[in-house]
Specification:
285 residues; mainly beta; Neuraminidase
């Protein structure tokens, strides 16, 4: 099974797959467990936070799941329109967004949650593939046609974009630094005022992005490489090849979800130092 996303919080790693599998790893003892969702929907994106009691997973066929961190039981959550959901993000327990493709029009759709129910908030001409909340009032979304949208004080607006190809992932480090990646090796950076192309010569599609204010941005590529951008590499774009040629679909600040295989240790001194165990490469702490 191909896994589409990975997320790390506290001592837990979660990953979700194309056939409805949710994989959980306890990093304290490297124990593995998995859950298969009924009807086996394609699962696209996970959101989890140490500050929230629940974990959310977005998927095709209007699939939105809510998981309890204690029991790890997964329950369906109703959304008010038929859609394929590609990403979910919560700023806090009363401000959540999920984005995707609305079935009837084929355009993008954004749902908002106040913590108790979901309501349609915004429609776009093309599908939306990712969403990231910097705060309860500043949220970014990206998708087809190079579309980048920003929510500011309750209103969504389309931002000028220098490209027309699809953007697959977006991440905000601060109000003055945001990143988006997508098809054809596109990397965009914003200073909070305007988006521009980041110098990168690769052409492989970029599928995922992660980072934190005190670290570099990590980008996963379809050709199996991981890109690192930021102060730790002097503002350059450094590519690291994984031990096996695979399509990287999810990254989370040093953790990369792939597929089942044997354990292979990265070469000493490699950046990042990668460990391949079971269904993912990850950087040991």
């Amino acid at each position: 099974e191909t896994f589409n996303d990975v997320i790390v919080f506290d001592t837990t790693v979660l990953s979700c797959g194309q056939q409805g599998t949710i994989l959980r790893v306890d990093l304290r003892d490297n124990s593995w467990s998995s859950s298969r969702i009924p009807s086996s929907p394609r699962l696209n994106k996970i959101f989890a936070s140490s500050s929230l009691d629940s974990v959310f997973v977005a998927g095709h066929g209007s699939t939105l799941l809510r998981g309890d961190k204690d029991s790890w039981q997964w329950n369906p959550v109703a959304v008010p329109a038929e859609s394929d959901l590609y990403a979910v993000f919560f700023a806090d327990d009363k401000h959540g967004w999920v984005v995707g493709e609305e079935k009837v029009s084929g355009g993008g759709i954004i749902f908002f949650s106040d913590g108790s129910s979901w309501a349609q908030q915004f429609l776009t001409p093309q599908p939306l593939f990712d969403v990231y909340a910097l705060s309860t009032e500043i949220v970014f979304a990206c998708g087809g046609g190079g579309g980048i949208y920003r929510l500011t004080k309750g209103s969504w607006a389309l931002l000028p974009s220098p490209i027309s190809s699809s953007l697959r992932a977006i991440h905000a480090l601060s109000s003055t630094e945001q990143w988006a990646v997508g098809d054809g090796g596109v990397i965009l950076r914003s200073d909070g005022a305007a988006w521009s192309r980041w110098s990168y010569t690769g052409t492989s599609s970029l599928t995922s992005i992660s980072g934190s204010p005190d670290s570099d941005v990590i980008i996963g590529a379809a050709d199996g490489s991981i890109l690192q951008v930021g102060p730790k590499v002097s503002g350059k774009t450094v590519a690291t090849s994984l031990p096996r040629a695979v399509r990287v679909l999810g990254v989370h600040t040093g953790s990369v979800c792939l597929f089942k295989g044997d354990e292979i240790r990265g070469e000493e001194g490699q950046t990042p130092s990668l460990l391949f165990r079971g269904d993912m490469y990850y950087t040991p702490s």
